[in-house]
Structure to design on (332 residues):
């Protein structure tokens, strides 16, 4: 079976791997632009929404599927896909330390609330670090690039924008290429998805972040408080990101840069230098729940969208479920 996948972000890449393992002939259609939401994503695999201290929906299932998925991809590519170490929550005082320990007593949180550690860097201001168990950080650009190179050799990668897509007589034609089934993994604004499936309840969020460096002691842990500070492993760090619901398509802003630096200085008293400033649009839905499925009239046409900032965690399981539903429908 020839499978077309439109979009090679986190969703499209996971879909392509599952199609490859199922023995399908994969055709990836992607512009190859490295400024999309997935390419600038922090790659955090974190079962806890730290800002609100709640679990990601189906966190346990996502972690199990994710572990198996990335281990298999890493084996196929003969490479390492993750930065070392888990994510840590910076706990500012004794009250927050007690709250962290109490959270670990709740049955649903217990598998993810780790031990406490002393602060590992002199510029960090707080009481302790709380480890988030089963968390990590995906090396997103490396994962996407290595996967694209793999599919370019083992299957088919088609560059450029897709401006023709038709469905007729049980086949789908994308840019003149016939496929037996196709999944739209476009992210925002989901032009082809909305053409065939109707309007999606998008609530896109604009995120900006900074790549920074400093002179002095290195930080090796991924830290969260009211934002993330993430080591890139090359004496540079990602700081951010912001959340905004307006001016979606505009470039980096001075206001976001200042917001990030002010927040960071509230708990990290290190003079930093801004090396780069990036912006991305997260394809989130109004209820923050991903959307996926197959077309009622064209059962060989499906879509997966709305992963938001959780794509590194949720794309393995959701893409697996999408293909499984296609196989189940074909066998019924």
């Amino acid at each position: 079976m020839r499978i077309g996948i439109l979009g090679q972000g986190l969703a499209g890449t996971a879909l392509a791997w599952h199609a490859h393992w199922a023995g399908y002939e994969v055709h990836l259609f992607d512009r190859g632009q490295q400024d999309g939401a997935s390419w600038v994503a922090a790659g955090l695999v974190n079962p806890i929404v730290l800002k609100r201290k709640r679990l990601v929906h189906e966190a346990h299932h996502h972690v199990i599927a994710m572990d198996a998925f990335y281990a298999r991809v890493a084996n196929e590519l003969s490479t390492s896909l993750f930065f070392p170490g888990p994510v840590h929550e910076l706990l500012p005082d004794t009250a927050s330390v007690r709250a962290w320990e109490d959270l670990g007593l709740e049955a649903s949180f217990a598998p993810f609330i780790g031990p406490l550690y002393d602060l590992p860097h002199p510029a960090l201001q707080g009481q302790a670090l709380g480890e988030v168990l089963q968390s990590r950080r995906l090396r997103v650009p490396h994962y996407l690039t290595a996967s694209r190179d793999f599919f370019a050799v083992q299957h088919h990668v088609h560059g450029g924008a897709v401006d023709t897509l038709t469905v007729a007589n049980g086949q789908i034609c994308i840019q003149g290429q016939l496929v037996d089934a196709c999944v739209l993994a476009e992210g925002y604004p989901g032009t082809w998805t909305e053409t065939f499936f109707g309007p999606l309840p998008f609530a896109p969020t604009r995120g900006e972040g900074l790549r920074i460096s400093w002179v002095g002691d290195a930080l090796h842990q991924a830290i969260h408080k009211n934002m993330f500070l993430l080591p890139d492993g090359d004496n540079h760090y990602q700081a951010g990101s912001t959340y905004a619901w307006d001016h979606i398509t505009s470039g980096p802003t001075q206001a976001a840069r200042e917001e990030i630096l002010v927040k960071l200085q509230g708990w990290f008293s290190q003079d930093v230098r801004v090396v780069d400033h990036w912006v991305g649009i997260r394809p989130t839905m109004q209820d923050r729940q991903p959307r996926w499925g197959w077309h009622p009239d064209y059962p060989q046409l499906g879509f997966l969208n709305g992963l938001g900032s959780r794509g590194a965690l949720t794309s393995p399981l959701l893409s697996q479920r999408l293909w499984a539903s296609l196989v189940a429908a074909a066998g019924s």
About this structure: The CA atoms of residues 19 and 323 lie 8 Å apart. The radius of gyration is 21 Å. The chain has a mean pLDDT of 94.
